[in-house]
Amino acid sequence: MSINESQHNIIFIATYKKMAEQAELVVKELGIEVEIIQGLNLSDSVQAVRQKNQDNIIDVIITRGGTALKMKEEFNIPVIEIEVTILDILKAVEKAKKHGRRIGVIGFPNIICNISSLSDFLNVDIVEIQINSIQESTEAVKKASQLGVDVIVGDRIAVETAARFGINGQLIATDTYECIIKSFYKAIEIANMKKRQLAKAEELRLITELTHNGIIAIDREGIITLFNAEASRILNIKPEDATNNPVDEIIPEINLTNTLTTKLNIFDEITDIGRKHIVLYKAPILVGEVALGAVATFQTLEQIQFIEKKARKKLSQKGHIAKYTFDSILGKSRIIKDIKDKAKKYSLVDSAILIYGETGTGKEVFAQSIHNHSLRRNGPFVAVNCAALPYSLLESELFGYVKGAFTGARDEGKMGLFEQAHGGTIFLDEIGEIPLKVQARLLRVLQEGQVQRIGDDRIITVDTRIICATNKNLVDLMKSNKFREDLYYRINVLNIELPNLRDRVEDIPNFVNHFIDVKSKEYKKIITSIDDEVILRLSTYSWPGNIRQLENIIERLVVESSDGVITIDDLNNVMEDGMARDMSTLNIDEITKKTVETALRISKNNKTLAAKTLGIDRTTLWRMIKRFNIE
């Protein structure tokens, strides 16, 4: 226990001079400030305390006997009673002998119990009169008088009452140093505890008042014990009109008393109160199996939507937001539909995913779509291109660092990307480029869900879903000891292999039309048509750069178009040298015939569907079927 934990407001009431003197010695030794009152009588003591406590500043009162009982009756202040020992009573009885041999001892059972058995030992006749409250003192003195006692031994009240009846009195003195210092230690302990409780109460008050949630608490009878300012604002009910009233009468819509019966936690319950949609969280206050009360916290649906919008805006400003969804993934080919279905299933669990695909196949688009389809959709999406960062920077970016971790480190340190992705998803693109040392640290995150900033010994727990992507063969990297085998099996729990554009040729017309629409709006150009031969030529190229390369070609076509029509000559003009050489070596007629045959096979000879797949009209398709003698 700390004596000087805080400023104490302790009142010591001495019922006689020597007690006051001993108290002063104790106060001096302990080095504390205490108000010592030497009350002439009980009435004066009560008045003195009442005057001192006008601002409710007294923490504890120290006194004894009947005075202690009176203080407990008059004030809501902790009272420490100075211990009365059997030795104190014996001393008082010894002093009382001068007034006579028949001595009445008045007091509470725990203090004077069986004192009469010492009569022979003390050579006096002790009459033991037990009382249970200070109100019984007068009757006790009367009884002592009727029993013919010569003197009364007791506390201050008993002695003062005896004097009114003309009977001699002897005060039981409790002025031993040990008893008084013990009482001070108890008082200081209670004062410190009281201040801590007040601090906790103030802390709770601030939390409940400053929160953006409405909070209502009830006792086991359903009476409202807490109704914070936000609850008042949301429900338009004054706190004084709600507190100490039955919750079922004030806000029956929340049905909080039912929680006392069910003892169940209820989350995200939506109810209407007036014209407001309220989202409720309800929980019982359980001690063992007994519900002693219940608490409800709530917000309006509009508040929640506003907070989510604000959070997403903030994440967007940081770049930690996923903008693509599965609707953003173009293509109607069977292969891409199957992959989208698989990715949607994977999005519903938190297992690590490895996405494999050549450059430009849309790995990040799939990663963002998985995030936005998952339960983490409202959390951050943090994308990291592992190949774009040097080793030293990659490590500090992923895991963060503390002040002074290395030369050039920020004074305030830095939060790592794994911490920033807490509650959401982190996308590690080009995972095969990560150095072995960083792979070891990454493995710990996957195994333990913990990160450690560079230069720090503190462990930080993170809740992050990991999606990795690569265009390299990680198995080959493992064989050459460039990629950890244990890490590979950690990131490859679920896997998705994205097809090359050349393997989904029937989707090329969709991409062409989409990119023309996007780029024409971006550059404020009007494109009215595109020659069928352009579509066919684009459908026959191998596209080593995949979708990204196709997008670049369409962008050039739109930019250089002058009359709103894209022709084969326009395509020849914008083709890169390598691409032009590749196309120039091709037999266009053979490739066109093969492309039409593929479209018919995929559409099961449905001419309308085949024409739509190729991005041409049905008449053009019939002309090509006839020209190439396709059966």
List the helices and strands and how they pair.
Blueprint: E1 10-14, H1 17-30, E2 35-38, H2 42-52, E3 60-63, H3 65-74, E4 79-81, H4 86-96, E5 102-107, H5 109-112, H6 119-122, E6 125-130, H7 137-146, E7 151-154, H8 156-164, E8 168-171, H9 177-210, E9 214-219, E10 224-227, H10 229-235, H11 239-242, H12 247-250, H13 257-262, E11 266-273, E12 276-287, E13 290-300, H14 301-318, H15 334-347, E14 353-356, H16 363-373, E15 381-385, H17 391-399, E16 400-401, E17 414-415, H18 417-420, E18 425-429, H19 436-448, E19 450-451, E20 460-461, E21 465-470, H20 474-479, H21 485-491, E22 494-497, H22 508-522, E23 529-530, H23 532-540, H24 546-560, E24 565-566, H25 568-574, H26 577-584, H27 588-602, H28 607-614, H29 618-627
Parallel strand pairs: 1-2, 1-3, 3-4, 5-6, 5-7, 7-8, 14-21, 14-22, 15-18, 18-21, 23-24
Antiparallel strand pairs: 9-10, 9-13, 11-12, 12-13, 16-17, 19-20
- The helix content, as a percent range, equals 40-55%
Radius of gyration: 44 Å
Assembly state of the chains shown: single chain
Rough outline: elongated
Give me the count of strands: 24
Strands ordered across the widest β-sheet? 10-9-13-12-11
From the helix content, strand content and strand pairing, which structural class follows? alpha/beta
How many H/I helices? 29
Beta-strand percentage range:
15-25%
Outline the low-pLDDT stretches: none
- Biggest beta sheet attributes: 5 strands, antiparallel
Distance between the first and last residues' Cα = 99 Å
What value does the average pLDDT take? 85
